[in-house]
Amino acid sequence: MIPRQNIRCCTIERPCTSPSTHLDDMSKAYASIIAHCGEDIQRQGLLKTPERAAKAMLFFTKGYEDNLDDVVNEAIFDEDHDEMVIVSNIEMFSLCEHHLVPFIGKVHIGYLPNKKVIGLSKLARIVEMFSRRLQDVVNEAIFDEDHDEMVIVSNIEMFSLCEHHLVPFIGKVHIGYLPNKKVIGLSKLARIVEMFSRRLQVQERLTKQIAVAISEVLQPLGVAVVVEASHMCMVMRGVQKINATTMTSCMLGVLRDDAKTRDEFLNLTKRQK
To answer: Is 162 an active-site residue?
Structure first.
């Protein structure tokens, strides 16, 4: 069995009712959702959709039926190996708990053994157990850290849809923040960009939403976001300017108030282009 003193994990499980009860209740809920969208639930193409959707959701969230001991299944072995063990590129998908839409990615795991190792396939099983639950894309990715220099992630690719013409705009996002005793997992910045860009948008609002979200999550000393994008509504229609690029920025905290700090961010992002 796995020693529990240093392990913190979610123990939420499905209610103890029969699988058929889950399926029936969820099918009725999906039927109601479809009907409230204005669709005819008796239409041929939708007759079995509520049940199919319920089965899919039960599969997507089957991690609630698993627990850590059963997943590992005593696959912990005594081994005098003292070098790091790394398993990378474990594919995963999960559902965002805020909107019930998927996020997809890869997990990289490394650990330094202390006379014990785990069967490598069990690491993938652990990833699956937690990813098959409703998750917050930023949850558990905020870390206490006494780092007081600027953190910059540049060239985050993005695309969104202009809310005026419903055509794409495509570009890159550059993010910088000055920590206040907390840092965020770097990939989560890309997730935040993705979350707001996958909506009908205008570039100015997108830029501000990203900056405000980072500020709310981290409470840093300052945040800077620069977005540069090419808008198909300017390329394919209207003025038809193929090489036009739109740049927007949002500065908060010291990155807004202190010119030297702001210039440091802008100069560093220029170098990384």
So the answer is: yes
238 pLDDT more than 50: yes
Last residue of a domain, one of 136, 160, 195: 136
Q: Mean pLDDT, to the nearest integer, of 148-170?
A: 91
Do 197 and 220 lie in a common domain? yes
Active site (annotated) includes residue 164:
yes
Angle at 141 between CA 138 and CA 143, to 5 degrees: 140
Is residue 36 flagged as an active site residue? no
Does the residue 213 lie in any domain? Answer: yes
| Residue 201 and residue 150 share a domain | yes
Q: Report which of 105, 98, 111 is spatially closest to residue 131, judged by C-alpha positions.
A: 105
- Give the pLDDT confidence score for residue 185 in this predicted structure: 82
209 is catalytic: no
Q: Which of 128, 201, 231, 264 is catalytic?
A: 231
CA distance 28 to 4: 40
Residue 3 covered by a domain? no
